[in-house]
Amino acid sequence: MNVHDDGPDPAHRRPPGVSDTTVEALGSLSKALETTERARGHLYAFHQLTGTADLELDRTVELLREAGHGQWADRVRREILGRNVIPGHWTFQVVEAYNDTYYEPFRRLERRVLADLAEGRDHLYEAEMKEARRTAGRPGHGARPGSPDTPASGGQDRETAP
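^ thats the sequence. predicted structure below, dont judge the formating
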C-alpha cells in the first residue's frame, strides 16, 4: 500500500502553511455551525409541534361543542386557535427570520473562511483527530471509506489474539 493511501483523503488534508492554531480555529467554527444546525433543528421541531398542537385544537373545539360546552369551544377557537406565537409571527415566519437573519449568513461566512484559510477543505480538525486516535491497520480503523482495513460488509470486527 502506498503511504499516501493511508490517511485522510486529499480533501481532508491540511494545505501547506496552515498552522495548528488555524486548524483549531476552523474546528471551533465548524463546531459552532454544527451547534447552530442543531438549534435550527429544534426550531423546526418547535414549528412542527406548534402546528400539530394548533391543528389538534380543531378536534378540541369540536369535542367541546359536542359535550355541550359551546362557550369554551368558542373561546378556544377565538383566543388560541391560529394565534401568533410572537407578535405578528406564526412559527414558519420565526423559522424564516432565523434562516435569513442568522443561519444563512453564518453558513456563508463559514464557507468563505474555509475557502480563504484552508483552500475550502472542511473538517481538517476532525480528520487530524481521527488520524491521531485510530490504529492504522486494525479492522474498523480505516482512514477513509474503502480503506483496506475498513470492512466492506459493515459487519462486526473479530477480535484476534494480540
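Residues 20-66 form the longest helix (47 residues).
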